[in-house]
Design brief:
The protein is mainly alpha-helical and 227 residues long. It has eight helices and three strands. The radius of gyration is 17 Å and the shape is globular.
Amino acid sequence: MATPLTGPVRALLDWMQGALEELYEIRTGYRVSDFVTTEAALLGLAGGSRSWAPEQLLVRAGPEGADVSVFLDEALLETLAQCPPARGLDEGNLAAFCTVLEGVSHFVYLAWNLFHDREVRRLELELQAEVDKYALVTAITLAQRGWPAEGVVTRLFHGFRYAPGLSGNELRRYRAANEYAHRYCDGLQRRFLRRGRSLPLTRELRRFYRLRHERKLRHIRAGAWAG
């Protein structure tokens, strides 16, 4: 279920998807902009609903496969269209960028795993999205002045609040994803970025992306990648 998007918004979403696919050396064969909707009412996500969120991946099983939609709040897309993240990140667009990127990340990771006939768990989607935020925010801030990349972990994993109205299972899942991703990204920061080793960082991120869910968790708990 897609919503007609403006040219700049489609270009923005495709740029974000392209950045992820280039980083991880993958191809999904689909464009996320073809699956995005901004119409919450069409998806039963009215603002008064407990389940409403500015970004959601919706998957419905059908007779011919999965029907996928990515809901993104229109205000977030407008913010990024006015302040393109490719030109830099700041306090005016970082939150919107991370939320939209989460939706793009979910779509890309789901599509890649379905192509390889692999099941995907909800925690796995959330964990990878947190790592994707770290990876792209780091890449952008390394290329701009004024926002040192060593502060990315602090900006992403501290000082945020979980959305009100989450169920117990949802809250536990988001907390687990945040805690695992925080541990992993903090280790990446210490081992690679603080030593100026961007190429080994990319190799580690690509390896992690391809691990199955349980191996991802064991990899983080082992901590060998953190040096």
